[in-house]
Automatic annotation (TrEMBL):
Protein name per UniProt: Anti-sigma factor antagonist
Gene3D superfamilies on file: STAS domain
Domain STAS, chain residue ranges per copy: 1-103
Lineage of source species: Bacteria, Bacillati, Actinomycetota, Actinomycetes, Propionibacteriales
SUPFAM superfamilies found in the cross-reference section: SpoIIaa-like
Amino acid sequence: MQIIADGPTLVLSGDLDVRSTGEIRNAVYDHLRRNDAGAVVLDVYDVETIDLTALRVLAMASRVALNDGQRIVLRGAGPAVLRMLHLSHLIRFFEVERAAVPA
């Protein structure tokens, strides 16, 4: 698992699971504290797998962000991430950017 900050965007990659939840939580909350754009974008394009524990950490961060007048946007969610979001019903906590449709 790797997290890279790029302006208002956090780029997450690899396997997001119970072993990485502490690091994910710290990175997202730190980014929310430093963000003044109103939205933190989590780029999950390179996330290979995500488990329920990691999704719950992100969902809670999204609720905290909304309470502070911010929002969390998921960008680049692939089939594995979208499937877990739908199965867990946690998709309701996020704004999910639609993938661009090829011309």
